[in-house]
Task: inverse folding
């Protein structure tokens, strides 16, 4: 049996999670502090990929990184085509799972007692030190839960990936795509194995989220 | 020396306070919601006033005209929060060393010094959740003092402690402050805490400073009606000038003699502890009273009394008075009306130029 969809899935989901982790961390940190008039609008835009159908996200991404899109053109000039590569799959997964990370982190940062942050600052620590030494350690359960959730979302990504990365076995065919095309091609046995595998992984994810969320310090 | 002038408008609340305090320990006394914690938060930079200036020992922390607004971390204030705000994921030693600047070695020395001087030895590796309230307070204080701040800001430092711990912790705080000679601003709604621990006093009502000065002076002659109430004066009523040093108290139906002639007197009051039942009942400021009700505590008794005529029900009274056990025993069986006397030196007089802050 060809295990390349598993490897591609893990590669895509892990890369997407790493991207989400840092971008989510940064945007959550900024948004917790930002009290300006556009707070709700920015927050809405950052959350949008969670509620939009993945095909819509895929469409936007296609327009953006397709050969004629602004980003795609730029890379094309440098001799790189993003579309129908694993990079496109990673981008699709990252965008779709970003809101889960962002919202989890924002909620985690917001529940940190504000007086602890003030205490840190009055003791002479700047914003960055306060964030690293107070905010992050006290948000760890939320950070872990957000990471696991967005990994799971990235792993299950189908719609947007199909639109920008296609279904090229060995190159862009991840488990969800393999399931769809196996089932469509009548190979229910093969589809069943992937279904079983992804169900197990997802269950482990949900289990660990619950575990992390309920863990008391 | 702290110069504080701040104005800030909130929804339905205007904070507009200014005062100056000398070095040493000062207290801010106010009812809850009066804006007293706001003062500390403005000094520490947690809240930014709309306008004003805050100058601490000649260093400008905030000045809306000069557009100066130092960030919290550069203000050198040691803030002890009401809930202590200890970092729950750090040990006692970790909390104390957090704000100390310098190398690892210096941090260690300073932390050890604070731990031993604040009687925290043996607790270095405990987490805040494993400490008692009193210990937590000592850690918070040690953490603030360890950074060598220009001023210590204590926000209701005793409110989270049990009653029996309070007086002990209060004495310990006074001792610590005298050892470290830190300028301190302490916020409390408890006048006794402030009287015991502070020399200077700022009284705040509805976001405005109503009195500022030496605490003994302010407790002896509070300048406004509510300052009198906040400093614990239980009996206060409107007063009308009659002649020279005689004033008439319409609500109580009596005329009393005071020390001198005030032209613009508005209220007069007497503290519940300054009411006497002399055996010799001649002399000035002696009146007939009848009991409306009596409330006995373990060591003292509170009497609710009415002047001149018997009370019709338990809430029909003019003044309340505190007596110790012995005195209560002595007078309890005397026939009514009792003869009550007030000492003219102890009568609190409030005039309408009280808006001027001395």
Result:
């Amino acid at each position: 049996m060809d295990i390349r969809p598993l490897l591609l899935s893990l590669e895509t989901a892990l890369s997407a999670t790493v991207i989400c982790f840092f971008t989510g961390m940064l945007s959550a940190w900024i948004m917790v502090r930002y009290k300006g008039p556009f707070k709700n609008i920015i927050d809405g835009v950052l959350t949008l990929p969670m509620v939009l159908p993945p095909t819509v996200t895929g469409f936007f991404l296609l327009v953006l990184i397709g050969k004629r899109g602004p980003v795609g053109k730029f890379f094309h000039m440098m001799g790189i085509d993003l579309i129908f590569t694993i990079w496109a799959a990673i981008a699709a997964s990252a965008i779709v799972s970003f809101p889960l990370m962002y919202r989890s982190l924002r909620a985690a940062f917001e529940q940190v007692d504000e007086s602890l942050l003030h205490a840190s600052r009055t003791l002479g620590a700047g914003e960055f030190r306060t964030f690293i030494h107070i905010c992050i350690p006290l948000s760890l359960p939320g950070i872990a839960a957000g990471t696991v959730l967005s990994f799971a979302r990235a792993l299950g990504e189908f719609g947007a990936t199909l639109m920008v990365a296609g279904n090229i076995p060995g190159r862009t065919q991840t488990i969800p795509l393999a399931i769809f095309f196996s089932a469509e091609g009548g190979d229910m046995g093969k589809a069943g194995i992937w279904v079983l595998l992804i169900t197990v992984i997802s269950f482990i994810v949900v289990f660990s989220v619950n575990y992390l969320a309920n863990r008391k310090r | 020396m702290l110069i504080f002038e701040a104005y800030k408008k909130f929804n339905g609340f205007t904070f507009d306070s200014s005062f100056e305090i000398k070095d040493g320990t000062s207290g801010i006394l106010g009812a809850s919601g009066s804006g007293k914690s706001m003062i500390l938060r403005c000094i520490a930079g947690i809240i930014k006033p709309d306008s004003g200036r805050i100058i601490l020992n000649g260093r400008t922390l905030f000045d809306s005209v000069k557009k100066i607004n130092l960030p919290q971390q550069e203000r050198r204030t040691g803030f002890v929060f009401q809930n202590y705000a200890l970092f729950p994921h750090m040990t006692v030693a970790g909390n104390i060393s957090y704000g100390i600047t310098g190398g690892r070695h210096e941090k260690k020395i300073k932390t050890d010094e604070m731990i031993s001087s604040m009687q925290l030895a043996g607790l270095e590796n405990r987490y805040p959740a494993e400490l008692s309230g009193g210990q937590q307070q000592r850690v918070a204080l040690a953490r603030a003092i360890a950074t060598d701040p220009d001023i210590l800001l204590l926000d209701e430092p005793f409110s989270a402690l049990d009653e029996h711990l309070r007086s002990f912790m209060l004495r310990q705080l006074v001792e610590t402050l005298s050892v470290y000679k830190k300028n301190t601003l302490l916020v409390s709604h408890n006048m006794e805490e402030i009287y015991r621990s502070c020399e200077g006093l700022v009284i705040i009502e509805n976001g405005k400073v109503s009195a500022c000065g030496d605490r003994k002076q302010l407790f002896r002659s509070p300048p406004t009606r509510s300052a009198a109430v906040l400093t614990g004066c239980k009996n206060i009523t409107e007063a009308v000038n009659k002649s020279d040093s005689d004033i008439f108290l319409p609500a109580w139906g009596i005329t009393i003699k005071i020390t001198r002639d005030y032209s613009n007197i508005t209220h007069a009051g007497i503290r519940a502890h300054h009411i006497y039942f002399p055996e010799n009942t001649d002399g000035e400021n002696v009146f007939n009273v009848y009991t409306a009700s009596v409330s006995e505590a373990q060591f003292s008794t509170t009497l609710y009394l009415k002047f001149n005529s018997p009370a019709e029900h338990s809430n029909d009274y003019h003044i309340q008075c505190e007596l110790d056990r012995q005195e209560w025993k002595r007078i309890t069986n005397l026939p009514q009306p009792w003869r009550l006397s007030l000492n003219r030196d102890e009568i609190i007089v409030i005039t309408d130029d009280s808006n001027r802050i001395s």
